[in-house]
Amino acid sequence: MGNESKLRIVVIGGVAAGMSAASQAKRRMPEAEVIVLERGPFISYGACGMPYNIEDPTRAMDDLIVLTPDVARERRGIDVRTCHEVLAIDADSKTVRYRTSSAEGAEEQKLSYDRLIIATGARAVVPPIPGADLPGVFLLRDLEDGFAIKNYVKERGVREAIIVGGGYIGLEMADGLRGRGVDVRIIEMLDQVAAGFSDGPAKIAAAELERQGVALSLGTRVEAIEAAEGGSLRVRTNKGAFEAPLVLLSIGVRPNRELAAEAGVAIGPTGAIAVDATQRTNLEDVFAAGDCAEALHRVTGGPTYIPLGTTANKQGKIAGANAAGAQERFEGIVGTAAFKVFQIELARTGLGLKEATRAGFSAFESVSEHSTRGHGYPGGGRLHTTLIVEHGTGKLLGAQLAGDEGAAARVNVYAAALASSATVYELANYDLAYAPPFAPVYDPILIAATVAQKDLARGG
Ligand code: FAD
Q1: Atom of ligand 1 nearest to the CA of 293
Q2: Ligand 1 centroid to 37 CA: how many Å?
Q3: Active site residues
Q4: Is 0.85 surpassed by the pTM of this model?
Q5: All domains of the chain, ordered by start, with CATH?
Q6: What atom of ligand 1 comes closest to residue 292's alpha carbon?
């Protein structure tokens, strides 16, 4: 044991999964010594809020910090050590080797553990192209990235930006930067924005981006970034070159798994750390949670890698509880996510058609569109729904929504339906609320399920 009789739980990483784990472990076992080693200067912040914070010049970026190390120590009894980078895990001697960095220099030390929780998260993918490291080229992953972008926009008086990657972070940042009066171009290798969404919702998102003055270069591959006149940057693509002083690379994330893998922790088929339902890895007394780990997909029944804060918090909580002796299980995810593109909401849960086919389902897409409020009630708009349905059985496999309002709220009904393996026949009979300000008498969910039934009757 770490300190005579006290159980020592060491957590690597101090954001969503790590701090959830540490807090839960301390709550379950107040007498345990809980130590968080975080390589960065910040812990426990809401990365998800960064695009909206960057949009608002009056807000400080550290508004996003939920907990400081001092507060974590004083109020929660967690020994948080920032600027502590773990370099290696030795599972045989149950120790970690870490490096501290301070103004006085760097120093390496060892720390023993009884239970270890790996919550090292993920990192933004940097494309292997020349110029990706030039000044003015940014990633948006941790709070320091957020500070850097916000300062750069302010200090340079940035008026144009290029965003490489049209996934949800790229789209949220297009919205945020336009809100600051910046002209934005999105360069995306695929022929659609919002990868993973079907054609219908992706086109709605693209139309909204263009309506808001965002230039789209779809089906375009970035080949190099180089310095241009007047401190600007030139992004060379297979379809010509574009210039702006700020380039944001947002082409996806990879799990930070190397530390774990080098210690003998098994990596799963998705490339992230393999865990069981109790968040245990293959090594005794070693747990993993959050963006570094896989999760069980409740629709396919297999492992998946969908790195989201909602999952990181829940997995962290379960890892922390179990490290402190509980027997809790994480029942898995269905991949529910929602985001805003200017005035449009996009949301999805479950499998897309390609994913369903890859997972061995014989499936089809059923498309419907409906108003979001009661007949004659002012305001509201349209909601486009794509259901992914299994041929024959009518089992719901996924849902994607895009529209003026209500997508993010309604996707949760589909998420619940997926968790209970509902069919579209069952979905069509759900007792959903009706009042003109919120929904038509037949909610778009009931309409979508009814349309899917008709599609099934026609053979899907
Ligand atoms: P991380 O947040 O990556 O934290 C891991 C920590 O571990 C890092 O601080 C890192 O420094 C530390 N670490 C790594 N290696 C070591 C080491 N060797 N030693 C010590 N420390 C180490 N999710 C949603 O659900 N909804 C959203 O709307 C949403 N929006 C987002 C918007 C943006 C711009 C971004 C960037 C992310 C968004 N996410 C969203 C994703 C969400 O932020 C992540 O899923 C979540 O932060 C994952 O938490 P984590 O603790 O697993 O990993």
Answers
A1: 52
A2: 15
A3: 48
A4: yes
A5: 8-123+254-323 (3.50.50.60), 126-251 (3.50.50.60), 337-457 (3.50.50.60)
A6: 52
